What does this fold into?
Amino acid sequence: MKLSPAELREARIAGLIVVGLLLFIFETYIPRPIPWLKFGLANIATLIALYWLGWRAALTVAVFRIFIGAFFTGMLFSPGFFLSFSGGLSATLVMIVLFQLRSVGLLTVSIAGALTHNIAQLILAVYWLFGNPVLWYLLPYLLLTALITGSITGGFSYYLLQRLKQHFSTPI
Amino acid sequence: MIKKQIKLLAWGDLLFWGIILAVCIQGDFFDTLDSEETQEAIVEIAGTEKYRIDLREDKDFQLTEFRKSVVLRIENRQVRMIENYCPQKICVKTGFAKRSGDMIICVPLKILIYIPKTRKKDQTIEIITG
It folds into this structure.
């Protein structure tokens, strides 16, 4: 069966949403050095969508992954979901802007996404969820972890994109 | 289509890293928290302060605001969450809060437990009288 370019694109976006979901669920089972630290592995799917299929695909992958992931983990519309949604959406938007500028590398795009994710979550926690500025003391630790996790996801994404490039060099 | 050349790093990264470095230096981010002996922990639920717990007395402390058991343990001037019914139990896994500035957070139940920062010894307020 021959798929049209539009169908092929939709299939690839759907595939990346599934990859993002699997990474999201996988991450809940791996032990973490710090209980609240998340590696943000699901962001690999968003980054690949951004560099492979463009910004609309990246936004679609991010939003669907967050909603479906929250649904399957029973967190839909819980406080944790809103933190996740605000962090994921703002991170994706920042990554899209930096990607469009084309003057920064993939690693920086990934780290900027991780930084934005953590900062957005902290802002929401300080001003909406807990209403206590004492939470700002967490900022340096969140920024430091974002630098580490953003580097890890950026490195993985770069490797996977190089492999994808070998297999899917035809325009969509 | 995948761009012909995906750059892992580029010249524009220098500007980004410069901004990050400047923010870190300006913010004096890694200022060490003082480690004076702590005497109390504050428990807030949904943004409202509910308890100030004396850490000098070892005991288990039940938060009665919830429909299921949520228990804190005070031991050796430290506080930890030992029982909670939230899904991921990150608050339980966090362990003890012992220094000023330490926090235990439960997002699903909106619980924030923290040890307030105390004034460092060299930060005393001087009162000059006439």
Observations:
- The helical segments of chain A are 5-29, 43-53, 55-72, 79-101, 106-129, 139-167.
- Chain A is about 75% helix and 0% strand.
